[in-house]
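Fold this complex.
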Amino acid sequence: MSKNLKKKFKDAMIDETPDFKKEIISACENQTQVPASTSNQTATEKQYNRPFFFRRIALVMSCIILFGAGLLVGKITPQTQPDALAQTHVYIDVNPSLELSLDSENVVLSCTAVNQDAEIILNGMKLEGVELKTAVNAIVGSMYVNGYLTQEDNSMLISVESGEKVNTSEFLNIITKQVNDVFENSEMECAIIAQEVKATKDLKQRAKEQGVSIGKMRLLDKMIDDLDDLTHDDVSELSKMSIKDLNLIYSQKTNNDDNSNGEVISGSVNVNVSESQALNSVLEQIGKTVGDVEHYRVFILPSKHGEFKAVYVVTLKFFDGGECIFEVDFQTGNITARQTDDDLDGGAPNGNGDNPHEGDGQHHKP
Amino acid sequence: MIVVFALNVDDVQNKNARIEQLLLDVSNGDATSMGSLYDLIKTDVFAFAISKLANKQEADDVMQDTFIQIYKYAKQYQPQGKPLAWIFRIELNLIRRLFQLKTRNVQLDEGIENTLSSQNMEDKIINSAFLNETLKILNEEEREVVTLRIVSGMKNNEIAKLLEKPLSTVLSKYNRAIKKMKLIVKERY
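Structure:
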């Protein structure tokens, strides 16, 4: 039965597979002969851009105008200008990761795509010779148009390595404002962490080993230093987390204490489930009310159960002496892991059955 | 039983080796190899797309975009014996971007019933109806796990890695999916 079932399923898929061979080969031939088209979009995206078209058109037009104006009035410098002239390096991470080198007047000397997604963002744009503001407009605008920056995923990490003549904290504020200005007339808001970074040989080496940008590596270092739960053993798992999740964790830390490391935090990360909703979700699922709870805490940490992503950690202490800890998904409000003490056995909530680590004794401490 | 399993593993390994060779040829600009690659993996690419999207039109678009991306980035592929995982990652990126761009109201009923093509041959009609029902009754995670395992022959741990899910989740999703599919067959086919 099972064998027939699988064959039936596979045969059905084979029958339904369309034949686009000619179209695809033709499209591929064009890819080799013609440089990237003026549009960044794929056929799939074009279909679904329609509802967003009018909302986006103003932003896109403003980016194009600013980009064009920047080309006209900006200092056009030779593209082969040596990197040694660079005064400032800016690393931008959304997931597309790219690097800008700037001269002393904040004119772009080079713009490099660090990964495949960033190549899609740049798509043939020549930013060398334009002013930083123009480049930021073009890059952030392209990220938005290509769906890398959305209402749901609105986080960005900006890392700046500057020369001695540059006031870094002032520069961080300037570039943060430039990103926010792109969305000035829209409902969109970016959640930005702008930080200073020193691209030492060690940092570069570790970033390379983890396959992340220098900026993301620096942020991971700071998180490990600042959060007791994290150690350098966690770095390979942390490196897989999205900028959004890292932003959630790091922003919480900076909200709770004022000892920031000189970074600029701007905007807030959009999540579907708030802290109070996470708490209520847990109470509802275990059949308790706030009246049963003597003490509770809700905070954000990387989950150590299954996927390595940011989760709400809800700790509850009941009047009857029982305690329990839950991990709650930001997007769904579902409990993804739990730990209860012996006093609550029997009355404790049931997990979804998917998590192999449920009740494995791991206990998060804030 | 053991022989059947061994043959299946060999088939998958041979297929992977063939895909890797074709990717190498494609990266050297051999257009005819792109056609051969398409023939070899078109069902894998389409099945993964429809398992995620549950909509034929969207799956068709993602399928085309995926092959174009494969062609574009073939030079970046580093042979590790798992070319399908690399291809599905490209496809997954396209699907995620699609999810980001469109409103998140995928209407399953509308998407599947209206779009899967009907065919003249009786077997194909039955298969199509079975696929429709299967896609409807399974949730997205079950669909993608069952498709990767049955259609593409991927191992559970490879699926877990690709989908960034715990192995136990993949196993439970697969088992649930098979149970649901058995029910469909038992009741109607």
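The mean pLDDT of chain A is 74.
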